[in-house]
Each structure stands twice: as structure tokens, then as C-alpha cells.
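Deliverable D4.2, example record:
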Amino acid sequence: MTAASDTWTIARAADGARARALLARLAADAGVPVPDRARFLSALGTRLRRALASGGAELAVTAGADGRLRVALGGPEPWQYTLVCPSPVPGPLPRPDDTPLAEALLDADEDAAALLTELAETEELVRLHREELHQTNQGVLALHAELEAAARAQRALLDAERAARAEAEKARRLLTFLADASAALNASLDHEDIVRRLPELLVPGYARHVDVWLMDDERMPTEEPAAATMPALRTGRPQHAGSRPGGLPGVDDLPASALCPDRPLLCLPLGARTVQGVLTLVAPGERFDPDTTVMLLELARRAGTALDNARRYEQHRDVAEALQRAQLTDLPDTPGLALAARYLPATRGLNIGGDWYDAFSQPDGSVLAVIGDVTGHGLRAAVIMGQLRTALRAYAVEGNGPARILTLLHRMLRHQQPELYATCAIARFTPGEPDMVWAAAGHPPAVARGPEGEVRVLEAKPGIMLGVPLPYEYEEHTVELPTGSTVALYTDGLVERRSAGIDAGIDRLARAMGTLGPVDLDGAADALLKPMLHDSEHDDDICLLLCRTLPG
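Output generated by the structure prediction step:
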């Protein structure tokens, strides 16, 4: 199929009308949709009116084989338009002169009616789309509202979770501090040390300043406390003194203290059943936190218990030490033998009351030097020590030697105190004889120093401890001691430390014995204690008994 083309002269309005009507019919026959035809014809009409106003123009029309209808209008304002036709335009092209205007007008009305119908349908679709869009918008708005509500709920949940985590962390921190502080307070049995530790623990995290007011044995304050402290002492109830009520759980409110008018005070009784004193805290900030106050109340209760334990311990220790010292022997003045002794109570713990020394003359003129250590500590150990000391002297008066005395003591302790044990060493010195006879029951070995400075550890195997539930006969040992020799009898507190075994301590004692200069026996005792106790802290009480042979 070849392209058909023609050129029409547009000189009058009738020419333009016929050309427009002809092109409308060609477009309709070619199946061009009504909207496309309307747009084409509207543009064509506008150009034709302009061309007629300028004196006319030539209109070239071409129906191409590719299904396109091309229109070109000449004149002062050239114009072209291409119309895509679903169906081919039949050729040859008719002339505009053959087109009746009346039919063209009716055809234009039909096109207008079709366009209006399609426009109505389009408007209905637009209306439906508008309603659908409105409903969609309403749904979107509802969805946005739901999302916003969900976001607010999630933020609330996150805030609640953060608050819960903060509360849990705060509770964990308070409990950890309470546990650590309680351990620090209960680690000491010195009430002055406990009082010193309280400000160290509480300032500055929980208080700006801390005062500790203690009760004496007559249940009176050891110092004149602040006025806000007295109600806590009298009633045993915690008190809060501030310019406004604290609202703290379990705490009574008082007016502001004259000593600290700008910050609240918290006065907490130390102890539960028995008030040991009052802990007074100045708030670290504007107020005391309720949760922190609950922790401080518990800490004050535990601190009071620690103070009560410390006082009971000190009383118990003082009684045990007094009893212990009361039972220690005044050393005898005997010819041919010099004696010196030292007793030192333990500096840590309730380790008092088990060690003793003794020295006395027998009817035959010999001298028995005794050193011993009862297992356990405190008053009971001191009492048992006194019983052993008395029984030992009684057995010695009967003329028994060191081994026999230990055998009798072992039998007595095994039957009368089956759950208590003791170690003991007995040395016998006889005037005019160069030998020392000794026996031991599980006791550390004696250390002997010759007159020329040579040192020996008397390491003969000792017998079992006194009181072990086995029948046992102890043996005696003999060692030659030239005149001027010194023998050290001691308890394990002198040589045993937690950081080192007892053998290392015995070696250290032997070295210290070897370095003794020409000093009297009391000076020798002090000279030995100094290197042996250089750390100044020992967990057990200590007995040291030095025996030096002299010319007859």
C-alpha cells in the first residue's frame, strides 16, 4: 500500500470548515479514538483560523502506509501534526469540495456527544478513584494514628524498661556495697578500727560527712552528741533532721539541726536489739534517697552487730589474757641455772589462753623447765592450761621424770577432756651435772646454743600430742650442755606463720640464736623476739623460755 497525499487551498472559512470536516471523517474511519480526534481537530481549527486571518494557506495531507495521518499547514505560522491511526486511511484522499457542510456539522455533533459520553465515564472513574483515594487516605491516617500510638507505647515500654534496668542496677549496686561494707566491718574485731572504717566506706558516695557516737559500758554517750542524735539514742529509731520532711521509710522526721541547717542529717542507731551508738550522716546532696536509706539502715544494724562482737571479743580476750597472765610462773632463782621468759598475746584474732611456761624446783634439787600449748583459745583453753600446769606440778612433786610426767598428763587429758589436745616439752636441769634430760609431746623442738656460739636443734622424734585417744608411753632424751649453754623452749606462735611453714621459722630461730652476743638472759630474750616478730603481727600467743647453765 502506497502513501496517499493531497494539498488543499484554504482561502475562505468554508474551505477551512470543509477541510476540518473531511479530516474528522478520515480520522473516524481510521479508528482514531474520540479524545485523540478531538485534540487533533481542536488544534487544527485554531491553526486554520490563524491562517485565514493572515490571508489563507496551503494544507498538505498525507496518509502514510505506516498508519499515520500527517497534516502540514503553510503560511506565516507553519504547523504540523501527526495522527496515529489504528486502521489504514483509504486512498485516494477525497477533496474537501465534495464534503457537505450540513453532514459535517451533524458528524461534529456526534463526535461531541461521544466525547461527552467518554468524559462522563471518565468523570465517574475520577469520582470512584477520588472516593477510593479518600478511603485510602483515611486508612493511611488511621494507620499513621495506630503507628503513632504503637510508637508511643513502645517509647513508654522502653522508658519503663530503662527505668527498671536503672532500678535493678541501683539495687545491685546498693546490695554489692552492703555486702562489701559488711565484710569489711566484720573482718575486724577492733571497735576503733570499725569506727574508723565507717567514714571511709560512706564518704563521699553516701554522705558528705559522717560522725559515729558510741555508748560506753554504762550505756552513756562517750562524747556529747548532736541534738538530732539524742532521739535516736533514746528511742532506737532512725531520725531525719531537715528543713522539710524526708519521707524516708522507717525514719522519723525532726526539724533541721543547728549544726547543719543547710543539709539534712540522718541519725541511724547502730545495732538492732542493743544500740551500740548512733551513726550520723550529712546528706551528700539536697536529700537522702529512700532506697539508699534502706541500705544505710541495714548497714547501721550490721555495723552495730560488728561493734557488739568486737566489744564482746575484747572483753573475752582481756579476761582470757588476765587469767593467762595470772597463771604464769614467777621464775625461781636457782644456783647453776639462769631463766628468762616472755609471754606475748596474739595481735590478731581471739588466739589467747592456750600457751604457758613454768619452771620450778623438785625435791632432789633439780629444776624442771616446762613449755606447753593447749589447742583452742579463749577462756576454756586458759582454764585447761591451768589444770595441766597444776597436774604437772603435782606429778613432778612425786619425783617423776619428764617422760613419766607427760605420760600421766596424757592419761589425764585423754580421760577428762577427750576432745582437747595439748603439746608440751619438759627439760630437767640437775646442778653439778652437764646433761639436760628432756621429753616432748608433739611440741616444736628446743634449740640449744653452746658457749662458743654453735647452735643445735634438738630434733629427736617427739611423742604424740597429749590427749590423743591412744595409750602412749613417752621417752626421755639426754643432751650434754657445757656451762654457758643456752636452751630456748618456745611455742609454735614464735616460729609459725601463714606465709611459711614451721620449719622455716625454726631455722630462723636457730640463726637468731647463733647471732646472740654477750648479753644477759633477759637481753637475749628481747634480742630473739625482735627478728622473730619483725612483722609485728602474729595470729597466736607466744611463750619463750630461755635456760642458761651457769658455773656451780
